[in-house]
Hints:
Elements: H1 2-19, E1 22-27, H2 37-44, E2 48-55, H3 65-84, E3 89-94, H4 96-107, E4 109-115, H5 120-134, E5 139-143, H6 165-174, H7 192-198, H8 218-223, H9 228-243, H10 246-249, H11 262-266, H12 272-285, H13 293-314, H14 336-343, H15 350-362, H16 367-380, H17 385-395, H18 403-412, H19 427-434, H20 439-444, H21 464-470, H22 485-503
Parallel strand pairs: 1-2, 1-4, 2-3, 4-5
Amino acid sequence: xxxxxxxxxxxxxxxxxxxxxxxxxxxxxxxxxxxxxxxxxxxxxxxxxxxxxxxxxxxxxxxxxxxxxxxxxxxxxxxxxxxxxxxxxxxxxxxxxxxxxxxxxxxxxxxxxxxxxxxxxxxxxxxxxxxxxxxxxxxxxxxxxxxxxxxxxxxxxxxxxxxxxxxxxxxxxxxxxxxxxxxxxxxxxxxxxxxxxxxxxxxxxxxxxxxxxxxxxxxxxxxxxxxxxxxxxxxxxxxxxxxxxxxxxxxxxxxxxxxxxxxxxxxxxxxxxxxxxxxxxxxxxxxxxxxxxxxxxxxxxxxxxxxxxxxxxxxxxxxxxxxxxxxxxxxxxxxxxxxxxxxxxxxxxxxxxxxxxxxxxxxxxxxxxxxxxxxxxxxxxxxxxxxxxxxxxxxxxxxxxxxxxxxxxxxxxxxxxxxxxxxxxxxxxxxxxxxxxxxxxxxxxxxxxxxxxxxxxxxxxxxxxxxxxxxxxxxxxxxxxxxxxxxxxxxxxxxxxxxxxxxx
Length: 504
């Protein structure tokens, strides 16, 4: 009997070691199957399974409501793509550092792959998982998939991180072409692992990511197609529709002049390498120079995201702490009423209100209007930029730990390559310049739709007769301006002077 027991135990051990050649890919902000080096690596070792963990560890910043809506649909699309490859996507909720080792032991997995994260929470999660897996002699293999270049590889001549965009762009171009994107994996035969792994998955519907009472996502469903296929369609449509004239047209919210790829990039449904190569390919086919004119400007916008991640890696407190320390002493106002009016698009400044309502309805806001709305919050209302960053995190489909924080700090004047604080957007002039016929305002602020063009961005200048004919009641169906912009501008400059004097 002892011999039988020994042989049985040995066979079990050998079988376990064989099984532990299986691999698991941990999906994070890389919800695509093409140009996914970690996924390809997992499949090179034979049968593989995938997992996505809705991570609730305290170090991970919880997703906002709009991002949760997108995540639901992105995961549903990913599940279909993986099924077509003969793979199972396990959905789990909790701490990835506890869930993934447990899955590995239950499924006989000896190799875990993932693509690197770059915010502090993501890095902490990687370190915790590495430690947990090492206790079971399971290897965690990390790849770079969501940036063009390693953020630690680009330094100034003094060996410091870049904090000005133009030199960063030049240094990035000088490193040469980014690696070409990788193909999607070849479909694998459906194995026993496919069915076994499926039993470990939670139901996506049970996660409650979608809004129900009320269902505020009607416009989002009409505007967006989350998932890798939606990302590729958006990119393909962009080139003939909006690449020509992009440098100028991207500033006009009343026109279709941007790629609208930002939510797809935020969730990793498309990679910057794919965008880079597709741009070069389109330019070559149409006799365009990708490093000049509209195409270059588009690639520079893609690389602003790269710059933002560069900053986040070197300054991990970017979402909460100003890069310029003197701004910690800035005399911010305390104005909950003003904050609520800004959030609801009820400031009395039509271009600001249109942007905030576009954000609430569609989960996205035109980039030019983001700057106008952010400037109004910070400099007209004198409210901390962190309040705006938090609101955008909750309401933007493309909420991104690097882009969101870096852009808010840029507008506030306290970040890298920042606009000077004394650059204060005049919401009336901005509206008249970039929405000259008021089409954007009329779409999102319909109560002003009947005002003539000359008044659409400053309804308070209308006569009582003009207001009555347009059906506008200031202080009624449309608010009076929260502030006098000229007075608010002087107040903001005086506040800046206080920290400038203390710094001196």
